[in-house]
């Protein structure tokens, strides 16, 4: 959208389409769709105890500027003999013919099946689930957590194995796409474009969603999302671009385009986009941080670690991020520097203060604990993660100490490495009390630098008990009232679409003890 008037118009359209129910037959699109328009699959997400978001995006190049009407059905069974809701929604060219349906009034903690229809075409059937009632007694929850799926670096075969692991929900922690034009030693090729415009972001999402294993995993269960940097640009921080912009590209316009494309391709509620469209003209937010409550068993606080942060401290020239030496970076310890923004920090503090759940999970996009690259007496830290924002991290630690929520668990991604350890009150004092545990996951495909050196970094970081970067994969976290059990699932070969998988390591955390041990 090129101006404020267009954005206001789009705001109204997004709200109307999400709320669409039965439309009169006269409103149905009469355009003939020659080929299957559901080639990007279906997805669901943003669950609540009484509602969920159902998503698809129609691909019909011959009707690129035409509004299309999509019918949808939600049923208790996969054969659709017991349909509980049905309706129509408009697929608008202004939103890339994406469809976001928000059926409400559903029963808590139960599976549903859904499908879309356009013309004579019927989509794949998806399976979704509502959350339990907030006060429900829940005995188990299985979350798969994943991040960082660069197309060129391998196949998304991890999702085929994840589907067999049958999680209740997938927690995706950022870098769903990458904006780069390509990669050296590419396993798969992109279109060779550095993504910067709305059309280019749409094309990049469509490329990712063409992957059959990713599509099948989206159809298998609901997903919960946050983003990191590559959904926009490497190392961006709030209104500041990270890497150098392509010639003629304005970063603010680029971010607006990226945020709109993110909404268009994720099962997010319309309120996420409408809030953003209202605010994009004045620098306000597209709020994606959120809470999900799994009865009394677990509360998930899902954070946004990109949109509100200060720029990275002491980056090297022409770098969005780099290593830093705290001893020669005066602003590193500035107490005013923020990673989450004041409003989100306050929101998280409130979440931790009033939770009452057995497990308090904080999902965020990167490694939380200190990772010192220097085995000597000095410190070498990476400035793009929490290590670059020590005052902001300390405020989270202070909230944990003050409110003492039950069994804190931090889940992260970004670094393309598995790290497992303890959340410490003071990372400079190894003997300080553990406030919780942390599992930062490897990537679905994205490579890491010098993976053979990662295990050697445990020595200067004794709060971690495990580090590994040799393989790609995901994590499976099983929560029960008595324990959390985590499996690190590792692919044999990310360059092989038929790759096998194995559990590389397993860990257990007993409820009531902030201690992670090998299982």
UniProtKB/TrEMBL annotation:
It comes from Ramlibacter agri. Residues 143-487 form the PhoD-like phosphatase metallophosphatase domain. PANTHER family: ALKALINE PHOSPHATASE FAMILY PROTEIN (AFU_ORTHOLOGUE AFUA_5G03860), PHOSPHATASE, PUTATIVE (AFU_ORTHOLOGUE AFUA_6G08710)-RELATED. This is Alkaline phosphatase. It comes from the Bacteria. InterPro entries: Metallo-depent_PP-like, PhoD-like_MPP, PhoD-like_sf, PhoD_N, Phospholipid_Metab_Enz, TAT_signal. Gene3D superfamilies: PhoD-like phosphatase, Purple acid phosphatase-like, N-terminal. Pfam families: PhoD, PhoD_N.
């Amino acid at each position: 959208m090129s101006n404020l008037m267009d954005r206001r118009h789009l705001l109204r359209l997004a709200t109307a389409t999400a709320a669409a129910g039965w439309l009169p037959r006269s409103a149905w699109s009469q355009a003939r769709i020659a080929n299957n328009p559901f080639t990007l699959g279906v997805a669901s997400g943003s669950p609540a105890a009484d509602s969920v978001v159902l998503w698809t995006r129609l691909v019909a190049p011959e009707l690129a500027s035409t509004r299309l009407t999509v019918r949808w059905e939600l049923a208790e069974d996969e054969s659709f003999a017991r349909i509980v809701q049905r309706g129509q929604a408009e697929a608008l060219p202004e939103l890339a013919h994406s469809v976001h349906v928000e059926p409400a009034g559903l029963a808590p903690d139960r599976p549903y099946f859904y499908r879309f229809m356009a013309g004579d075409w019927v989509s794949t059937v998806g399976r979704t689930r509502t959350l339990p009632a907030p006060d429900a007694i829940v005995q188990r929850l299985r979350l798969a957590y994943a991040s960082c799926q660069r197309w060129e670096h391998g196949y998304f075969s991890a999702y085929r194995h994840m589907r067999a692991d049958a999680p209740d929900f997938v927690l995706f922690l950022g870098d769903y796409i990458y904006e780069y034009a390509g990669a050296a030693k590419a396993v798969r090729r992109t279109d060779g474009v550095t993504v910067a415009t709305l059309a280019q972001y749409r094309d990049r999402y469509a490329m990712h969603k063409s992957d059959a294993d990713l599509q099948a995993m989206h159809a298998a269960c609901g997903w919960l999302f946050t983003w990191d940097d590559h959904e926009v640009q490497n190392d961006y921080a709030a209104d500041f671009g990270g890497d150098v912009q392509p010639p003629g590209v304005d970063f603010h316009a680029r971010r607006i385009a990226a945020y709109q494309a993110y909404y268009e391709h994720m099962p997010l509620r319309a309120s996420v986009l409408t809030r953003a469209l209202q605010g994009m003209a004045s620098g306000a937010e597209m709020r994606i941080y959120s809470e999900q409550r799994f009865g009394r068993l677990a509360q998930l606080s899902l954070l946004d670690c990109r949109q509100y942060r200060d720029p990275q401290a002491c980056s090297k020239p022409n770098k969005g991020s780099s290593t830093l030496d705290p001893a020669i970076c005066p602003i590193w310890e500035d107490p005013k520097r923020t990673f989450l923004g004041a409003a989100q920090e306050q929101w998280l503090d409130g979440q931790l203060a009033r939770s009452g759940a057995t497990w308090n999970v904080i999902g965020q996009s990167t490694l939380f604990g200190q990772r010192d690259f220097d085995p000597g007496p000095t410190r070498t830290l990476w400035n793009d993660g929490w290590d670059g924002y020590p005052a902001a991290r300390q405020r989270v630690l202070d909230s944990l100490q003050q409110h003492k929520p039950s069994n804190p668990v931090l889940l992260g991604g970004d670094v393309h490495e598995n790290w497992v350890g303890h959340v410490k009150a003071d990372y400079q004092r190894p003997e300080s009390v553990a406030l919780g545990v942390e599992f930062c996951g490897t990537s679905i495909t994205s490579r890491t630098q010098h993976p053979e050196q990662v295990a050697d970094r445990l020595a200067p970081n004794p709060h971690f008990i495990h580090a590994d970067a040799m393989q790609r994969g995901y994590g499976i976290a099983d929560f029960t009232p008595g324990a959390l059990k985590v499996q690190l699932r590792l692919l044999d070969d990310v360059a092989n679409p038929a790759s096998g998988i194995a559990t590389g390591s397993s860990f257990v955390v007993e409820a009531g003890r902030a201690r992670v041990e090998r299982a």
